[in-house]
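Appendix B. One record, verbatim.
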Amino acid sequence: MKVKRVNSRVFALAIVLSALSRTLAQLPTSGEDRIQIEIAGLRSSKGQVRCSLFSSAEDFPKRPDKAVALAKSEISNEHAVCEFKGIAPGMYAVSVFHDENSNGKLDTNFMGIPREGVGASNDARGHFGPPKFEAAAFHFSGGQLDLTIKINYF
């Protein structure tokens, strides 16, 4: 009978540990999962760079207020880095612009052509407008992902 008690205790402990490990696996990330964007091709160190992370085609890239995450970076020696922390695995696209006058928005001319530099993940470019989400999309499986986005000026 002693053997049965020990086995039932071991069995109960195994069930508790199994449930605990499943619960821990479902907890949100602690910031270890991150996407880091290096910005290349800046023409000056004036202003700042603004980055938007999108998880769907809706509003990409024109509505940064609808993005999953936003980041901005100061520029030093024509170099900037944006970082998104605590990002869940999934499909994403990033849009970036060089906010040279630090007014918080992408300045355009009367035809809608950007006066400030713009870029997107996968170096996606639009034809007669911004790039499509599908062209800029990438899969993030967790951990750390480092991307480089080149800024284009028109």
